[in-house]
Design goal:
Number of domains of chain B: 3
Order of helices and strands of chain A: HHHHHHHHHHH
Radius of gyration of chain A: 22 Å
Shape of chain B: globular
Number of strands of chain B: 10
Largest sheet of chain B: 6 strands, mixed
Number of domains of chain A: 1
Strand content of chain B: 15-25%
Strand content of chain A: under 5%
CATH topology of chain A: MetI-like fold
Number of helices of chain A: 11
Distance between the termini of chain B: 44 Å
Helix content of chain B: 25-40%
CATH architecture of the largest domain in chain B: 3-Layer(aba) Sandwich
Strand order of the largest sheet of chain B: 6-7-8-3-9-10
Number of strands of chain A: 0
CATH class of chain A: Mainly Alpha
Largest interface: A-B, 22 and 33 residues
Largest sheet of chain A: none
CATH architecture of chain A: Orthogonal Bundle
Shape of chain A: globular
Structural class of chain A: mainly alpha
Oligomer: heterodimer
Distance between the termini of chain A: 18 Å
Radius of gyration of chain B: 18 Å
CATH superfamily of the largest domain in chain B: P-loop containing nucleotide triphosphate hydrolases
CATH superfamily of chain A: MetI-like
CATH class of the largest domain in chain B: Alpha Beta
Order of helices and strands of chain B: EEEHEEEHHHEHEHEEH
Structural class of chain B: alpha/beta
Helix content of chain A: over 70%
């Protein structure tokens, strides 16, 4: 019985998506607008299938993911380090606090021309653009997490014989993990979004680049199949982060309850 | 020798963006070796501060705190501490929590595992070795915390309202367990509480503290050393002792209440 309900709930999650797809198909088939403005879902699906089989789409996804992941990884490593340093060292807080306040709400993509000027139009500028955009939520989450580590956890570790240096790795970091990971979960879709926008603006293939190319050739099904692919890649990434979180934070009440 | 001595200890809290508070004023107190001493007083009287100074968690600013004649300079495994809110590492299992202190000592792995198993049995948590703290009740969590502290075999046990977060039944059971543990491995215990009955029941001596700034108002011998047990709480002598201490504390508690509003 419980299994059936669980299955039902999983199915329910797909109902809204299915509804949109059916609506799309019906609307396109009705020819209210031309097939150029809105190719049907079936046309786009067939196109996506062909793009995958031909290898073009695989290459595009691989390129985009490589650059998004590279940028995300840099943002994760430096973001966590900067966030924790801000929380622990007052000079760092004094220096970074105003910068983070200004940088966090700013649309980082506005720096794209500068990044192109400084780092060229190839992988380096895109990866750094992703890092620059994704690092702020990681810094803020790590900072808040490290600030919020209960003092008694550190005290008890010291009284059990831990050294000051061990506190960071053995106590502060694992205690901060849930919040840090929330920051990473925010940073991951940002990385994908910024990577695709950068590709659209500066070219260089990938999902964003190929959509722009197809647009120039008035290849409407190609554009839509690119958008469909982005939606799928994004959803898979978000889901993957959730699963990693579940595995990594096995001890957390949220995981134990599930 | 694990005698503890506070000599003319004062302590001021200086929170950022608000006025400094004098928490302790010229407190002098000696704790004998293997004695169970309770620090009793109203909330905010500085009894926890006194404990944290002894633990080495706060710097001694005025006066002197010594253990076995040596001044306290920082935390160390000779003084184990148990906190009210357990302070367990939520990402570690019961076993891993207990092992943490043992890993800091240079013991062979098999020896560490053996000690951890012993302690899990001692606090009656067999079968919960691989549970995470979030899966345990309050009483079980505090038993893990006690086991983790006992693992490094500290000569001095500091307890900061350890049973304050537990319900009355669990607390009564924990009292028995604590007394049994201390009978098996005698230790010097400094136990902070605002519960008069708890202080009388557990301690050999009770140091009553005044409302802020904290001073030692009076030290009372409970005199029940040999006869601890659930039956004790029903006796006339126990009731008299509780009443005597409550009289000492009442005025201070009222003072602390009115000042907090």
């Amino acid at each position: 019985m419980a299994r059936v309900t669980a299955l039902g709930q999983a199915a329910l999650r797909w109902v809204s998506i299915l509804a949109v797809l059916i609506l799309w198909q019906v609307f396109a088939e009705a020819h209210v607008v031309s097939a150029f403005l809105l190719p049907s879902f079936s046309t786009v699906s067939v196109r996506l299938y062909h793009d995958v089989v031909s290898g073009d789409m695989i290459l595009a996804v691989a390129l985009t993911l490589y650059r998004a992941f590279a940028g995300f990884a840099l943002a994760a490593v430096f973001g966590v380090a900067i966030g924790i340093l801000i929380a622990r060292i007052s000079v760092m807080r004094w220096f970074f606090d105003p910068l983070v306040s200004i940088g966090l709400p700013m649309p980082k993509i506005a720096y794209l021309p500068v990044f192109i000027l400084w780092f060229g139009v190839f992988d380096a500028s895109k990866i750094l653009m992703v890092t620059f955009s994704a690092i702020f939520p990681v810094i803020v989450a790590s900072w808040a997490a490290a600030d919020g580590v209960e003092g008694v956890l550190l005290w008890s570790a010291l009284s059990l014989g831990a050294g000051r240096r061990q506190l960071l790795w053995e106590i502060a970091l694992p205690a901060s993990m849930p919040q840090i990971f929330t920051g990473l979960q925010v940073a991951m879709p940002i990385s994908l979004i910024v990577e695709i926008i950068s590709e659209m603006a500066m070219g260089g293939e990938g999902l964003g680049g190929s959509i722009m190319t197809e647009m120039r050739f008035a290849d409407s099904p190609g554009v839509f199949s690119g958008i469909l692919a982005i939606a799928i890649v994004g959803a898979v990434l978000v889901k993957a982060m959730e699963l990693i979180r579940r595995r990594l934070l096995l001890w957390h009440p949220e995981a134990l309850a599930g | 020798m694990t005698g503890i001595s506070f000599h003319e200890v004062s302590h001021t809290y200086r929170p950022p963006r608000s006025a400094p508070t004098l928490a302790l004023e010229r407190v002098s107190l000696d704790v004998r070796e293997r004695e169970f001493l309770a620090l009793l007083g109203p909330s905010g009287c500085g009894k926890s501060t006194l404990l944290y100074l002894l633990g080495g968690f706060l710097p001694v600013e005025a006066g002197a705190v010594t253990v076995a004649g040596k001044p306290v300079t920082g935390p160390g495994p000779d003084r184990g501490i148990v906190f009210q809110n357990f302070a367990l590492y939520p990402w570690k299992t019961v076993r891993q929590n207990i092992l943490y202190g043992l890993e800091k000592q240079r013991l062979p792995r098999a020896e560490r595992e053996r000690r951890a198993r012993e302690l899990i049995e001692l606090v009656h948590l067999g079968g919960f070795d691989n549970s995470y703290p979030a899966q345990l009740s309050g009483g079980m969590k505090q038993r893990v915390a006690i086991a983790r502290t006992l693992a490094v075999d500290p000569a001095i046990l500091l307890m900061d309202e350890p049973f304050g977060a537990l319900d009355a039944q669990t607390r009564a059971l924990m009292h028995e367990e604590l007394l049994a543990i201390i009978r098996r491995t005698p230790k010097t215990v400094v136990f902070v509480t605002h519960d008069v009955r708890e202080a009388v029941y557990l301690a050999d001596r009770v140091a009553v503290m005044s409302a802020r700034p904290g001073r030692i108002k009076e030290i009372v011998d409970t005199g029940f050393a040999g006869e601890k047990g659930p039956a004790l709480t029903g006796t006339r002598a126990f009731a008299d002792k509780v009443e005597h201490l409550w009289d000492l504390v009442r005025g201070e508690a009222i003072l602390a209440q009115t000042r907090r509003d």
